[in-house]
Design goal:
The protein has 3 helices and 4 strands. The chain is globular and about 50 Å long. The two termini are 21 Å apart.
């Protein structure tokens, strides 16, 4: 099953210097590991605000939420998930 998450950095509660190079590097390494494992299928940087849109693939929501919890910026409380949506196949392609 696939899921879409849209997140944003909590820049209203954390100053720019809180998002250290070490934290950002750790986030990048974790994203690469999740991609290599297959649970993170695609990721896009948001153009409207600091954050990301991620397409996930897992047996269920619990696995995706557990993966999100391992992201360093999320674990630090500096990232919020604004939208989390389970996705279904588009029926128009089956007709």
């Amino acid at each position: 099953m696939q899921f879409l998450s849209i997140s944003r950095r909590r820049t209203d509660q954390f100053p720019p210097e809180a998002f250290t190079a070490e934290l950002i590097a750790g986030e990048g390494q974790r994203v690469k590991a999740l991609y290599a494992s297959g649970i993170l299928r695609q990721i896009w940087k948001r153009a409207d605000t600091p954050g990301a849109s991620i397409l996930w693939e897992a047996p269920g929501e619990a696995e995706v939420r557990a993966a999100i919890a391992t992201l360093p910026i999320f674990a630090a409380g500096m990232l919020e998930i604004e939208i989390f949506v389970p996705l279904e196949p588009y029926a128009g392609f089956t007709a």
